[in-house]
Amino acid sequence: SQTIHQWPATLVQPVGSPLSLECTVEGTSNPNLYWYRQAAGRGLQLLFYSVGIGQISSEVPQNLSASRPQDRQFILSSKKLLLSDSGFYLCAWSTLESPYEQYFGPGTRLTVT
Amino acid sequence: AQTVTQSQPEMSVQEAETVTLSCTYDTSESDYYLFWYKQPPSRQMILVIRQEAYKQQNATENRFSVNFQKAAKSFSLKISDSQLGDAAMYFCAYRRPGNQFYFGTGTSLTVIP
């Protein structure tokens, strides 16, 4: 069965510091991968998605970037964090066949101080 | 751009009763997919139910069912025989024929014992 891992689970970082969040998927090949941010009390905002190694699409221009160095690895990064980057970050993968449902990782709570 | 609207920020239901959560979406596509996700306090996103737009029959998963009105672009979730464990944030999501998913802002469901 497929599983998705995210780490770290919780992170507190000062403004201006770099960021690296990692997501890995097991039990599937060539998945579509996604990064979302969920601000407190709000819905999910799609940040990036990837259909293959090195292929990244950005939905929202901002202080963050994403990379996919391996088929089942998806990394969210920032060179300098802003206070507004605080939130709950979720990684997800989706099936390649109908109905293309998404499955989510446990999330990372990021607090920028 | 596709948008997903959940007009009920909060809902409550008595245990064992039935509740309906509303969702509308805006799209010019004819082929798409709709989902309801549940996010309990653990914040793990859990897929509740899915609906392919080309299917006229409403999807059902045990106590969960949907009322899919394609012409009205409406996709409501009905929870029957509500249980305490159903208390969570519920998100409606739309997937366009590309790879992007779009989520509503969520409905917080409280189940009253």
Explain this structure to me?
The complex is a heterodimer of chains A (113) and B (113). Helix content of chain A is 0%, strand content 58%. With 113 residues, chain A is mainly beta. In chain A, the strands form two sheets. In chain A, strands 2, 4, 5, 6, 9, 10 and 11 form a seven-stranded mixed sheet that branches. Chain A has a four-stranded antiparallel sheet with strand order 1-3-8-7, with no helix packed on it. The radius of gyration of chain A is 13 Å and the shape is globular. Chain A starts with a strand and ends with a strand. By secondary structure, chain B is mainly beta. In chain B, strands 2, 5, 6, 10, 11 and 12 form a six-stranded mixed sheet that branches. In chain B, strands 3-9-8-7 form a four-stranded antiparallel sheet, with no helix packed on it. Chain B is globular, with a radius of gyration of 13 Å. The interface between A and B is medium-sized, with 24 and 22 residues.
